[in-house]
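Morning run. Coffee first, then this:
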Amino acid sequence: MPHPEFLPIQWKSTYLELLDQRILPGKKEFLKLSTAEETIVAIREMAVRGAPAIAITGIFGLTLGALGKSGEAKPEAIESLLTAVLESRPTAVNLSYAIREARNRVKGITDWGSIQKIWETYGLEMMTEDLAANKALGENGVSLFPKDQQEFHIITHCNTGALATAGHGTALGVIRSLRDAGKKVIVYADETRPFLQGSRLTAFEMMEEGIECYIITDGMSGWLMSHRKIDAVLVGCDRVAANGDTANKIGTYNLGIVAKEHGVPFYVCATKDSFDLNLKTGDEIPIEMRKESEVTQFDFLKDENGKYLFPEGKTSPKGAHALNPSFDVTKAHLIKNFITEFGCFVPSEISLRLKSV
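And here it is:
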């Protein structure tokens, strides 16, 4: 079982504790959430992030929404709650799958107490299954790396570790599994603008694990691949279309192009719930557009007295506008393999492989 520090979601029967990832690595604090509304805000404001973790949190948000209610659960009230949680973050398909399953599990049930227990059980099941899937994914990923090689240099993007899942992680899970197999792994973590999940969270996890890690800015990958031997790029994902086009944190597409140019294998780590065969290509994946201020200011840049190092935390001219798409889509031809809990395969095999699980 992962160390409690790497369990970002902890269900406490009547409330939910979330490790607040917005203030890592400076502080390790848990939010105590008692309502569905508080959970929705935590998801939207990225106190929790990572597609699997968002989905699990969403189900516990439903549980909190039903908790304490008595009497008849009218269909319109149930649907309103499901919709509110679903709309908290639209790009990650894991959440939509989880909401659909949550809806199916309470179909025909009109008692809030029964609904609450069903959703609570489902959330706990998801946590157990996600952890098992991550460990299987990690072991499958190890098989893609030469057995006789003892040291690997790997680039990652965003955070794909225990903090983004129920534990162990997807892309960072492969790195953990390589380490556990006796290999030395050197990680180059893209800082991941504008929210810095790579420099704040991935570097934090690697330091806690004792895995050698260097933070690089998102624009340094080309230089790095030109000047040092990079064995692979490992990324996670939020949604994969039927043709293999993959939505992930903004900047992943750029990394895929650079990796292709330098002949570096680009691997996408995904559990089965990340695949959306209803979408033919990545052009159909909804892309979340977030607020401009995440780009134009660093709220956390303060001196020892709590005073902003820049006026009001801004790092850009007053009145300047910014674009802030949270995700981009990496085209399937840039992806060498998908690494999943049910095996490794090329993009053209997605439909065939998904039918067997």
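The longest strand covers residues 184-190. Good start to the day.
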